Amino acid sequence: MTAMVDILVATNNDLSMTNHGCFASRLSQHAPFEWQTPSSTPVDEVDQLVKNWFDEKNDLKTNGNVCYPSSSSHSDFYILDENSLMGPCSLNINSCVQKICEVDFRYAKALSKLDYSLISGNEKVCGAEKPLLDVDLDELEPLLPVGDVL
User: Fold this and answer.
1) What digits encode the pLDDT tens for the residues 31-76?
2) Cα–Cα distance measured from residue 21 to residue 73, given in angstroms and rounded to the nearest whole number
3) Which of 36, 78, 88, 147 is least enclosed, having the fewest CB within 10 Å?
4) Phi and psi for 106 in degrees, rounded to 5?
5) Strand partners for 20
6) Global pTM?
7) How far is CA 116 from CA 35, 46, 60, 101, 126, in A?
8) Quick one: three-class SS letters along the chain?
């Protein structure tokens, strides 16, 4: 399992999402990747949110962002402490690893709150032409509490 799946299981205890849609199914190491492409269309809000998750993590490795240049030293494995007053990812010293942790935690938390009906991804479903679903990223909860915490 990937760190993304580990954090999703920690927030939701449900692995059915790793069989869902065109992008959520990419969370599984055993997914049949031959029909999954970056140009696939998400099948629903859950699949769109996972696509956004992958896109945001990939963006961290682009020029000008905290994980650029991308290298093997940037790991998707990190320390997560939900009881830390400084935030669940604050124990990570490396800024890239901390940012990866924050992105993973935010999306996993948002996904764990969504109800969905399983739509198994396959070549027919993931190659369909339809508009992308609109997911409001502003509705994701912040990692740190807003206002006074003490």
Assistant:
1) 655 556 667 888 899 999 999 998 898 888 888 888 887 654 556 6
2) 31
3) 147
4) -60, -45
5) 120
6) 0.71
7) 22, 7, 28, 25, 17
8) CCHHHHHHHHHHCCCHHHHECCCHHHHCCCCCHHHCCCCCCCCCHHHHHHHHHHHHHHHCCCCCCCCCCCCCCCCCCCCCCCCCCCCCCCCCCCHHHHHHHHHHHHHHHHHHCCCCCCCECCHHHHCCCCCCCCCCHHHCCCCCCCCCCC
Report the alpha-carbon angle 24-13-137, nearest 5. Answer: 45
Which tokens in the block code for residue 50? 């996972």
Amino acid at 5: V
List the domain boundaries for the chain. 3-135
